# Entry
Amino acid sequence: MAAVLCVGHAVQDFVFTVDSFPETAEKHRASDFAALGGGPAATAAATIARLGGDALLAARVGDDRIADFIVAELEAYAVDCSMVKRFAKRRSSVSAVIVDAAGERLIMNYLDPDLESQPDWLPNELPDNIGAVLADTRWPEGALHALTLARGRGVPGVLDADVPVPKDGSLVRAATHVAFSARGLADYCGNDDPLDALQAVAETTEAWCCVTLGREGTLYLSGGKAQYTKAFTVPVVDTLGAGDVWHGAFALALAERMHIDDAMTFAAAAAALKVANGKGRAGTPSRQAVDKFLQQNNTEKRA
# Structure
């Protein structure tokens, strides 16, 4: 069974469903509510476990009841939380998430600025079974440490490059695979044209680079030329966590040594099913569901 170390953000989400996003500063009533786990690295870890991989999460939380909720839910997904560190007198990260009738989401997150950032409590070598590392940008110091270990071991080191990506380029250079969000790429490069920005990034790193564009698919470079992996068309229930699911599935596929094209298609299928299922992280599909979906949609996804 392939194993992936995920490093970064673990959050408790409070999700409110509404017909449309509020436009006035007054009381509004939600049509539904759920308390769910979130965070890019944590959701990716849950995805990896749901897809049949071994997931180990390294993350920072506070010494509070929110941390209890975060860890308990992740362990229910069979995520190894032995590297989730609780810091005394600090608060765990929380988000208020509003999801509208079209499935789009608005997120207001709090991350305690006094959480210890230095990763000196992380191991100096990857566990023997780790076949890939996935890091988000919410904890840059931890991400750089883990991605450097991945390069030293010769295993894939995937950077989930969402806002904010450190402008010094250290994480982009440390990774072997960089998967930008559209906002992350635009913010990092100061360029709203995905192709121009991606080509500019590729000149600064040896890493394989792509940018996920939601329903437009994934743009990547092959031999310096632009290529696309198309997104699957599904009914949109909610997009909450879809990008995190994509990254988790992609990292697992690389740990399983899938070809890069197959890894992107596998990730696109997992993300599509999550969007169609809704329910935030709880809508993450199983491996059986993804394999069945791919068999039913056995069409060429690259253009």
In short: DSSP finds nine helices and 13 strands in the chain. The first helix runs from residue 40 to 50.
